[in-house]
Design goal:
alpha+beta; globular; DUF1214 domain-containing protein
Length: about 375
């Protein structure tokens, strides 16, 4: 037997560095926060390995790096994310079949998000710009322009119970039918090095990123609808962060928008990641939420239950990120379309809601059961 090549040393060192970053995160307040950080770390390790090893520039493929076991960048619980690496000047053919999701969008990114800046969006469009046959099949060709690094596809679901995934593939005509290059020590060493850089870099990035945007705003406020930084032309978002005592609640009132296919709200942790959206209600779409007779949705963000359907559970987090999204818009949004925030005691919520409609513990449990079934049916890990 030959001696070890020790190819994994960069990754081992990176895991140790990443663990130090997580263990000493400045926002950790409780042991529960620290344990959540270690779960977050496992997802970052998984993502780093996937992004380094689950691709070949000669044989492109869509991978799903973000899901309920690998959370990052205040990931949207209503979305499935697909990434494919690109090489400048190369022609790619993307084929698929449109499912019944609320939105299917494509975006070419130059570079990557970092602790210093956001990635550059070079091109963004949704499937309305594609020709599709009667069965929803489509095909388009793209030659990677200068600076193009990644093609990101988002399939977003407004109704988790009924909307179905489509299919998606990408290929390079110039390498199709040719075998993959054999393994080499140099190639594997580089991949472990890429995984190491990706792991530490992603943690540093998502520690810094919310301070570019969310945390520039005062606590317990939400911005007016605006273009999402680095986002899609047909998307608007409202961002902010909350800071609530255990006996406090935030009431977020926003009109239901009939001029978009998807509208959603979510809260996240200080790790700038989604929290458990499978066995708790930490996000809601307009299809899942209850709309009051006046056409407005009223959400309550709190630790304790306000006894309503539109409860967003903070899961022990006194602070966290917030985001509202509108996608596949048919018109631009104005201030009147945005959210209004009110802070009160949890015990006062019923009196502050003009259309208070209580739900029983059993009814709420049925909502959670529906979420579990939908996530199991829809998500890819």
């Amino acid at each position: 037997m030959s001696e070890s090549l020790d190819l994994t040393k960069p990754l081992r060192d990176a895991i140790a560095e990443a663990e130090e970053l997580v263990a000493n995160a400045p926002f950790i307040r409780t042991e529960a926060d620290r344990l959540e950080g270690y779960d977050y770390l496992s997802g970052r390790i998984r993502m780093a390995m996937q992004m380094a090893f689950d691709h070949d520039l000669d044989r492109p493929v869509f991978i799903n790096p973000t899901h309920q076991y690998s959370r990052q960048g205040l990931d949207n619980p209503d979305a499935i994310y697909f990434n494919a690496y690109l090489k400048e000047g190369v022609e790619y053919v993307v084929r698929g079949r449109r499912g019944t999701s609320a939105d299917l969008s494509f975006q070419v990114m130059g570079g990557a998000y970092s602790a210093d800046s956001a990635a550059t969006s070079l091109m963004a469009f949704d499937d309305r710009e594609l020709e599709k046959d009667a069965d929803g099949n489509f095909e388009f060709t793209y030659v990677a322009e200068p600076g193009a690094k990644t093609l990101i596809v988002r399939e977003v679901f407004n109704d988790w119970d009924t909307e179905e995934r489509g299919t998606l593939t990408i290929e390079r005509p110039d390498t199709l039918g040719k075998p993959a290059a054999p393994f080499s020590e140099d190639r594997l060493r580089k991949r472990y090095e890429v995984a190491a850089r990706s792991l530490v870099g992603s943690i540093q990035t998502w520690f810094a990123f919310p301070h570019f945007f969310q945390y520039k705003e005062p606590a317990n406020t939400l911005t007016l609808p605006q273009s999402t930084p680095g986002g899609l032309a047909s998307q608007r978002s409202s961002i902010g962060h909350y800071e609530l005592a255990e006996d406090e609640a935030m009431i977020v009132t926003v009109p239901e928008c009939a001029d978009c296919s998807y509208q959603g709200i979510q809260i996240g942790s200080d790790w700038y990641a989604s929290t458990d959206y499978e066995t708790h209600q930490t996000s809601l779409t307009k299809a899942q939420a209850v709309t009051d007779p006046d056409g407005k949705m009223r959400f309550v963000v709190s630790e304790g239950s306000p006894g309503i359907a539109n409860w967003l559970e903070t899961l022990g987090h006194r602070t966290g990120a917030m985001m509202l999204r509108w996608q596949r818009l048919e018109r631009d949004l104005g201030p009147e379309d945005g959210p209004v925030v009110e802070i009160c005691k949890l015990s006062e919520v019923a009196d502050r809601l003009p259309h208070f409609s209580p739900v029983t513990t059993e009814e709420y449990a049925e909502r959670i059961a529906a979420r579990q079934r939908s996530v199991a049916r829809r998500m890819i890990s």
